[in-house]
Amino acid sequence: MIWSSSRPQLGFKRVAVVLLVAPIVALAPLDPVQAQQIPSSSVNAAELISSLKETTLQSGLTVAATTVRTVETTTNLNLRSSPSSSSKKLAVMPKGTELSVSATHAGWSQVRYGGKTGWASNDYLRTVAKAIRAGELGKTTAELKLRQNANTVSKVLTTVPKAGIFTVKRISGGFAQIIRRGKTGWVQSKYLSTVAQKPGREIYIDQKYTSNRAGLTDIYWTRVSGGDLRESVNGKILIGDIPRNSVVYRDLKLEKTAGSVSGWIFVHTQGMTGWMKTSQMSRKSTATTKPSKYTAKQVLAQTNGKVPEKMLAAIAWDPEKTLIASPALKDLNRLNAAFKKKFGKNIDIDLAYRTRATQDAYWIKLGPYVAARPGTSNHGWGTAIDMPETYDYSFRGKYFKWLKANSKNYNWVHRKILEEESPYAEAWHFDYVGR
Ligand SMILES: [Zn+2]
């Protein structure tokens, strides 16, 4: 279902509020274990050690947790005012309460419960693995062994790199079934974090997903060939060699945040953000929207990502006037006419031609599991189109279903390797197969 929406899916959450309404008298307000598990006279050794450490340190310093960790109380547990068992009791947290750890110190975790921030002994907290589910995208948090069966003893088929992204086929007892290099096997699901949304051709800015449009309407096209997108004004080139008539969206809000610079604008283009020279901008596309004399074969004979401008054309009915290989234009126009007849609107195009420089930038930024290896994607010849990652263009969506069934009549295909069952599943990419 992760594909079916452009919105990240929310994981299930145990809500502490529900537990709060339970009468507090029903709980054993012991610190930190339940009455039947420990004689009332005894001192809990673990907690004692913690408090001794606390005494030794005396600093009162807290170490900020590097990542927000979700924990669960394994018993009815006291929330204390400081990381010490002799400090003031603020509340009793029922067994099974889910908490976020904001800091740790000497065997204690700082948590917030019932509107109060306090400390809980780590001995009675356990980390809650964010349970990944079948059909979701998982990202590996460590290098893993892919095993034949859902256990830690069966044959190792291959290794799975850290930060790889995989679709989880099945879940079984703490193991997730994934496919790696054509081999179906199992990894421990606790080492997979849920990827909320399929990362696509677009890029993350400060961990936030963005697109070319990003809600922006201030549109330009590049008026020179070989334009540069830079990290900062006169700074590092993020993407060089941007072709003439590439669409550019100005982001005035970010530009002002960064500090406006005369002669430069802050833009979203090619799925990335950065600075471009205003002298490279035009308010309209001058690219031809007419099919050319060139054949697909001639375009495919060019170096991937370095298709000459004369072999590219703009899609006339696309508001962004996206560039594609000109021989593919006629069939795309026909496909769009049929689509429009069916749905009363044009096909939404997100991306078509992508230069080698753009591919390289993606490869560096996103890595092998998201970006296509530079020089291999049909986008590099302008013979592929991507639709936006919206519900209607997803596997469950009406547009996708129609395109999958009909595009081949117009020499556009959705390839088998991109089908839903594939680890490379992608609904919104179609390839041109005409001549
Ligand atoms: Zn694509």
Automatic annotation (TrEMBL):
Location of the SH3b domain: 66-129, 134-196
InterPro entries the UniProt entry points to: Cell_Wall_Dynamics_Protein, SH3-like_bac-type, VanY-like_core_dom, Zn_M74/Hedgehog-like
SMART domains: SH3b
Name by which UniProt lists this protein: SH3 domain-containing protein
Originating species: Paeniglutamicibacter terrestris
